[in-house]
Amino acid sequence: MTIQNRYDFVLFFDVKDGNPNGDPDAGNLPRIDPETGHGLVTDVCLKRKVRNYVQLDKELSQGYDIFVKEKAILNNLIDEAHEQENVKAKEKGEKTEAARQFMCGKYFDVRTFGAVMSTGKNAGQVRGPVQLTFARSVDQIVPLEHSITRMAVATPAEAEKQDGDNRTMGRKFTVPYALYRCHGFISAPLAAQTGFSEEDLELFWQSLVNMFEHDRSAARGQMSARKLIVFKHDSKMGNAPAHHLFDLVSAEASETPVRSFDQYDICVPTQENMPTGVTVVEKL
């Protein structure tokens, strides 16, 4: 059964001594708002982590395959939809819609985030019910640059250039500590179009809570999901504007410089403070 309620949510996550989302156009420096100094993590980065978690958890089982995954050739996957018997049997004008429905049913990320699938034999476009904003750090960040040394070379030619000294130098960028805040939106009417179900919703919440647990790397340092605050509306269309609900959540540092989550006070609204028809739930 597809979801019958609108949801809005706030996700807090942090990074310690790592680079949460490097910018390839800036030498892989942590992304930053140059006018305010606040750090940024793209929505694409967060969706990637959700996809990776679902892929590990469900092992690409029926209905939980991932469309945008590493080394995927998207047009081949779109063409596969047109090879299905129920799609082939359709009239020319109905094939695209039938292929779109097949893709929504097979791929978790298509029915969750949507996809443009008109690059191959055309499976249409899907507007996903789940959308995320860029995550922005609560406070300014200070990107640090570190020199690192490798005690080996890759080729004999490199060894000759080093005159017998196999050490090579490199650079690594980190953020000492930052707490990031992301906003999200889930539309019940759009969920009805893609088949996004209550089971899919629970898997999505699970992914947000655990996505960093299986995404460890030396470059990203220590990253953790810290708070997931969900606003559930009583209706499909919603009972209050999302920005009014987000304004009820605040994060303030008790001291500076901040080097741990314990130094933040997160204000989560109580149910008594909620607009009529909206329930607040702390998933984390």
Automatic annotation (TrEMBL):
Gene from which the chain derives: csd2
Protein's name according to its UniProt entry: CRISPR-associated protein Csd2
Classification via Pfam families: Cas_Cas7
Superkingdom to which the source organism belongs: Bacteria
A biological-process GO annotation: maintenance of CRISPR repeat elements
InterPro entries assigned to the protein according to its UniProt record, in alphabetical order: Cas7_Csh2/Csh2 (IPR006482), CRISPR-assoc_prot_Cas7/Csd2 (IPR013418)
Stored CDD domains: Cas7_I-C
